UniProtKB/TrEMBL annotation:
InterPro entries: AB_hydrolase_1, AB_hydrolase_fold
UniProt cross-references to SUPFAM superfamilies, sorted A to Z: alpha/beta-Hydrolases (SSF53474)
Domain AB hydrolase-1 residues, every copy: 29-239
Gene3D superfamilies per record: alpha/beta hydrolase
Protein name (database record): AB hydrolase-1 domain-containing protein
Organism: Candidatus Gottesmanbacteria bacterium RIFCSPHIGHO2_01_FULL_42_12
Pfam family, one: Abhydrolase_6
Length: 246
């Protein structure tokens, strides 16, 4: 099936996207940050025979889509992709699919669009391996999870223990963890600081975490803007100390 490259003008700028198929349902693929939409190459043979059109945008700042402007944040990504979906969906039934940052967009887009009566579904893939996409799509194509939102992970996610190891993560993830949603200002930890409270922080979907980490009582789970879920123990005490150290 031929994949075409197209563009559409939003109020933010021009968005380029890949499109394949002519079905009566639209499958949107949102790539991760610094990724690209070419993952649809492995999806076409599964979804198009099931009656889907596939649309995969280059997110702002990626490919030939418009560059990111100063202070362009997650909310801007969300609002522009909402506009993009409305411009390209043709009032058809839609499925929103994304990994990593694109998964965060998909979940939040679904919440916004459902309030307008648009039928949407979100299968969120936390793995970043392109080889995992066809397996996920095979499950999606069975029409088993089209009612409401669904989140799942196809592989065991890494266990992160204690905050001392977390500076390896991107700062925006740390900001999200501290605030529970988002914290705007940047911060840095003094390298010599040792936190007294130990918190186990595990990335993964809820069912997988509860099944594999039964010995921990998690009192908090956080859905980051990037689309990943983290589960934490001793959340209040741990982050109170963390805030005081910043």
């Amino acid at each position: 099936m031929e994949i075409e490259e197209k563009s559409v003008e939003t109020s933010y700028g021009k968005i380029w996207y890949l499109e394949a198929g002519t079905g009566s349902k639209v499958f949107y693929f949102f790539h991760g940050f610094w990724g690209d939409p070419r993952g649809i190459n492995g999806l076409s043979s599964i979804l198009i025979p099931k009656g889907y059109k596939i649309i995969a945008p280059y997110l702002p700042g990626h490919g030939k889509s418009h560059s990111l402007q100063f202070k362009f944040d997650f909310q801007d990504f969300l609002l522009e992709m909402e506009e993009f979906v409305k411009l390209t969906s043709g009032n058809l039934r839609i499925v929103l699919f994304g990994n990593s940052f694109g998964g965060g967009l998909a979940i939040n887009l679904a919440r916004r669009l459902k309030t307008e009566g648009i039928i949407v579904s979100v299968p969120l893939l936390q793995s970043i391996k392109l080889d995992d996409y066809p397996r996920a799509i095979w499950e999606i194509s069975k029409d088993r999870i089209f009612d409401g939102l669904a989140a799942f992970s196809l592989k065991k996610d890494k266990r992160l223990t204690y905050f001392a190891e977390l500076p390896k993560m991107k700062k925006r993830w740390l900001r999200d963890l501290i605030s529970g949603v988002r914290l705007i200002k940047d911060f840095s930890l003094d390298k010599g600081y040792k936190l007294q409270t130990k918190s186990v922080i595990i990335r993964g979907n809820k069912d997988w975490v509860s099944r594999n980490y039964k010995k921990y009582n998690f009192d908090k789970h956080v859905a980051l803007s990037g689309g990943h879920y983290y589960f934490l123990r001793q959340y209040d005490k741990f982050f109170k100390e963390l805030r005081e150290s910043i």
